[in-house]
């Protein structure tokens, strides 16, 4: 089933080093899956960001958007009608 595959991929993402959260959204911005520490309302925001980014770079229909803060980063990508946002701890190379 597609749901089982999606859930397994979601779990695999959350089990990756430095990943602190994840949200998956459909093309309408509706939340498909969200880790407990990420609000389901984030789904609509990341979906909109992915849609606008693809308009900035029309030759790249699935750009990867990286938002960086002082303590974490968020990677956003739309692929196969699903937008994913992966939140990661910022890796400090000096430690």
Automatic annotation (TrEMBL):
Q: Name one Pfam family in it.
A: LAMTOR5
Q: Which GO terms describe its molecular function?
A: guanyl-nucleotide exchange factor activity
Keyword set for this entry? Cytoplasm, Lysosome
Q: What domain of life?
A: Eukaryota
Protein's GO biological process:
cellular response to amino acid stimulus; negative regulation of apoptotic process; positive regulation of TORC1 signaling
Cell compartments where the protein resides: Cytoplasm; Lysosome
- One Gene Ontology cellular component: lysosome
The family line of this record is: Belongs to the LAMTOR5 family.
Q: What is this protein called?
A: Late endosomal/lysosomal adaptor and MAPK and MTOR activator 5
For this protein's source organism, the top of the classification is: Eukaryota, Metazoa, Ecdysozoa, Arthropoda, Hexapoda
């Amino acid at each position: 089933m597609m749901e089982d595959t999606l859930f397994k991929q979601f779990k695999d993402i959350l089990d990756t080093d430095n990943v602190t959260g994840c949200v998956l959204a459909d093309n309408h911005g509706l939340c498909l899956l969200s880790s407990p520490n990420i609000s389901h309302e984030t789904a609509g925001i990341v979906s909109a960001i992915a849609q606008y980014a693809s308009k900035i770079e029309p030759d790249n229909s699935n750009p990867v958007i990286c938002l960086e803060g002082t303590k974490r980063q968020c990677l956003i990508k739309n692929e196969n009608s699903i937008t994913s946002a992966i939140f990661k701890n910022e890796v400090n190379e000096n430690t």
